[in-house]
Structure formats: structure tokens, C-alpha cells
Design a protein that fits this description.
The chain has a 6-stranded parallel β-sheet with strand order 1-2-3-4-6-8. A 4-stranded parallel β-sheet has the order 5-7-9-10. It has a domain of about 100 residues. The chain has 7 helices and 10 strands. The protein is globular. The chain is of the alpha/beta class and about 280 residues long.
């Protein structure tokens, strides 16, 4: 995997050719990516999921280059005192630190908030990337537009929370409780939902991509404009659900349960072509 991360860096910096601190910068960045990749593997991600989440976190190369010392700065830098880190090395480390801060990590990024109670908090547009949030409580919190990327959210509670247009990417959502939460326009990518709860949840316009929804219950839910892309719906339950304008791409719906569901003709046709059992449904 280190070779693959190195190839990613080589490609990202290819447009900039050679520059004085290139070797040190590449070495430092590779170490950062390797550390992040290893941390993600510890969160039970697959090799590919961890790799994708790692490179997605990388940020903007142009911003890093803008802050790197130029050749004239390097040649005029006075020598370091004995025992001190060379000035160029310190400059690179400071540059990378600033670049990381400039590419979207908020005060909650890479934070350990396990079992924290953040109920009734205004956390709109926050970035919780790479954070440990196991069993954290976000009940009634305003989290609209927030980002949870590669976050450990097992058994977290989002009851009555505003999660409109929130992004969950490569996150562990096993046992998470979204009862009565507003998830309209939310995006879920490469996430696990084993034993997650969606009772009376607003899912209008939500999108699930590359995620495992096996066994999850959407019973009695109104799913309007919901998208399932490359998603497992094995034994997922949609009993008595109202399904309108559903989008289904390369998703396993054959063994999902739709007894008593109401759906429009387009949704019916999509599910039928996916091999779903639709004998006890109402078409509107």
C-alpha cells in the first residue's frame, strides 16, 4: 500500500516538477498518509476503503505549494544552532501543519469524543473527520451541513437531530440511532449500518452509496427521492413504507422486504427489474 500512496503523491505533485524541498516534503507527506491509512484500518475498514478515505483527506496541493519556501529562501536561511532541527525541515513541518489546518479540519477534526453528550448543541457545518465518536449523544443537535468522514460512530445517538445535507463517508454507523432525525439531503458513502435505527426519520432526498444496509428497517417510512447506489439491501425491510421517485443503481434489492409498501410505477419497475418480491404492494 505504501507504493500506492507514493504513486498518489507523485501524481499529485507532477505538475510542479522539481523544487528545492521536494524530497523532504514527499517524505513527510507519505509518513502522514501512511499513519492515517493505518488508523483507518484499525476502524475495521477494508484496504480499499481506508485508501480512498486517506487520499480524500489529502486536500489541495496548490495550498501546500503556496506556503513552501522558495529557492532563494532556502539559500539565505542561516544555519541552525547545534541540536536544533534544520530550518528547512522546520519550515516544511510548519507548512504542512498550516496546510492541514487550511483544508477543512475544524476544532472537532481527529478528536476523541467517545460517549460525549453533545445534545442540544449547534454544530452546523462542523467537520468531524477521523474522530472517535463511539456512543456519543447528539440528540436534538443542529448538525446540518456537517461532515463525518472516517469517523467511529458505533452506537451514537442522533435522536431528533437536524442532519440536513450532512455527509457521512467511510464511517462506522453500526447501532446508530437516527430516530426522528432530519436526514433530508444527507449523503452516506461507504458506511456500515448494522443494527442502525431509522424510526420516523425524514429521509427525503437522502443518498446511500457503497453502503451496507443489510437487515436495516425502514418500516412505515416515507422515502421520497431516496437514492441507493451500489448498496446492499439484503433483508432490509420496507414494510408499509411509502416509496416515491426512488433511484436504484446496482443495489441488491432481491431479498429486501416490501410487504404492504406503497410505491409509484417507476419505483415499482426499478425494484421489479432488480428481482425484488412485490406481490403484496400497492402501486399509485
Amino acid at each position: 500500500m505504501e507504493d500506492r500512496l507514493q504513486q498518489f503523491l507523485d501524481k499529485a505533485f507532477a505538475p510542479y516538477g522539481s523544487f528545492p524541498s521536494r524530497e523532504d516534503v514527499m517524505k513527510e507527506l507519505l509518513a502522514n498518509l501512511r499513519e492515517k491509512y493505518t488508523d483507518l484500518l484499525k476502524q475495521d475498514m477494508s484496504d480499499e476503503e481506508a485508501y480512498q478515505a486517506t487520499i480524500e483527506s489529502f486536500g489541495n496541493v496548490a495550498e501546500i505549494m503556496e506556503q513552501l519556501p522558495h529557492e532563494d529562501q532556502v539559500t539565505t536561511t542561516p544555519p541552525s544552532a547545534p541540536g536544533q532541527e534544520p530550518s528547512i525541515r522546520k519550515s516544511i513541518k510548519e507548512t504542512l501543519k498550516q496546510a492541514k489546518a487550511s483544508i477543512g479540519f475544524s476544532k472537532f477534526g481527529s478528536t476523541d469524543l467517545r460517549q460525549a453528550d453533545l445534545s442540544d448543541s449547534n454544530l452546523a457545518n462542523e467537520d468531524f473527520s477521523y474522530s472517535a465518536l463511539v456512543a456519543a449523544v447528539f440528540n436534538k443537535s443542529d448538525l446540518h451541513g456537517s461532515v463525518f468522514r472516517a469517523s467511529a460512530l458505533k452506537d451514537a445517538s442522533f435522536i431528533d437531530a437536524n442532519l440536513q445535507n450532512t455527509t457521512f463517508a467511510a464511517s462506522d454507523l453500526q447501532g446508530a440511532n437516527f430516530s426522528r432525525a432530519n436526514l433530508s439531503g444527507a449523503k452516506f458513502d461507504a458506511s456500515s449500518f448494522k443494527n442502525a435505527t431509522f424510526n420516523n426519520t425524514n429521509l427525503i432526498g437522502a443518498e446511500f452509496r457503497r453502503s451496507d444496509l443489510s437487515g436495516v428497517s425502514f418500516d412505515n417510512q416515507k422515502l421520497s427521492g431516496v437514492t441507493f447506489r451500489t448498496t446492499s439491501l439484503k433483508k432490509a425491510s420496507f414494510r408499509n413504507a411509502n416509496l416515491r421517485n426512488m433511484t436504484l443503481h446496482h443495489s441488491e434489492a432481491k431479498h429486501a422486504i416490501f410487504d404492504g409498501a406503497t410505491m409509484d410505477k417507476v419505483t415499482y419497475a426499478l425494484l421489479k427489474s432488480a428481482g425484488a418480491t412485490l406481490e403484496n404492494v400497492q402501486i399509485i
